[in-house]
Amino acid sequence: MLLIRRFEEACGRLYMQGKIRGFLHLYIGEEAIAVGTMAALRPDDYVIGHYRDHGHAIAKGMDTKIAMAELCGKATGSSGGKGGSMHLFDSKKHFMGGHAIVAGQMPIAAGLALASKYRKEDRITVCFFGDGAVNQGEFHETLNLASVWKLPVLFLLENNLYGMGTHVDRSRAGGRHIYEAAAAYDIPGVQINGMDVLGMNECVSETVKSMRKDGGPRFIEAMCYRYRGHSMADPTMYRERDEAEELGIKDPIESLKNFMLQFEIVDDGELAEINAKVEAEISDAVQFAEDSPTPDLDAMYRNVYA
Q: Cα-flanking dihedrals φ and ψ of residue 302, to 5°?
């Protein structure tokens, strides 16, 4: 979680320096969801996500140097600098990309799960999406198809309460308990505190175990809170300054740190070591990205199919 947090903070700084361009959606505050989920999966399980995808990619094992180079539009990035922030991709880690179109990744997740079922592979597909996606047609169509065909896909909703600047209460009926909508498609659904990495891991572990045993899709709604704006262009003027405190939101990294110290799982010295290693890795990633070449002009026409 700390690696993702520091990566995102570095991205924010590079964006303000003009070294990362375009849209940038930071995952700060939601790290427990990605980390708790990935720890419950097998290496060959598929993961596909939305545009706030840095945390998903890193938690799935993507090299931070390659990810940072992609964000900076460099030739050494995962897509040669063409994808940028919203389209990280690492097929070797079975991370099937971030997707900029809201809910656009959901039919693809169903396709991945269908392929796994057709090949008789014991493989789960996890599809991350936000609360804004539930008002799109792809959400309903994909849940229906996944249920009818009993596809091994875990729909994981990251409900951070806001679709851009619109509160979920204003955009969705029952916006704080969207998991109940899964019942309309005969899909078991639960809601969980997405700011608790241990609880997240336990929930996903049990869910995935059930899926491998009985087949079919599942639905988890992870309630969370993003500490930054929707994107770097968002000053979050629509939120009260003390909203997180009023909601009882606790930083997932601080909560885990306090838990480990309380039960003497680690000491301050070990935490300092972890922090130093993370800082060094992020520093190396930034340096790698800055030193990497920009794509040549001919690259503009490569891998273009339409």
A: -85, 145
In a domain, 199, yes or no: yes
Q: Which residue did the predictor score with more confidence, 304 or 140? A: 140
Q: What is the pTM of this model?
A: 0.95
The CATH code of the domain that includes 53 is 3.40.50.970
Domain contains 306 = no
Tell me how far apart the alpha carbons of residues 201 and 210 are, in angstroms, rounded to a whole number.
14
Domains: count for the chain: 1
Print the SS3 string covering 170-182.
HHCCCCCCHHHHH
pLDDT in tens, 217-248: 999 999 999 998 899 988 888 888 788 777 77
Domain coverage including residue 207: 2-299
Per-residue pLDDT tens over the stretch 275-297: 999 999 999 999 999 999 999 98
**DSSP at 63:** -
In a domain, 50, yes or no: yes
Going by their DSSP bridges, the two strands 218-223 and 189-193 should be labelled as parallel
Residue partners of 124: CB distance under 8 A and separation at least 6: 41, 42, 45, 46, 113, 116, 152, 153, 154, 208, 211, 212
Nearest of 89, 214, 99, 221 to residue 152 by alpha carbon:
214
The answer to whether the CB of 211 falls within 8 A of the CB of 126 is no
SS3 33: helix
Residue 268: inside a domain, yes or no? Answer: yes
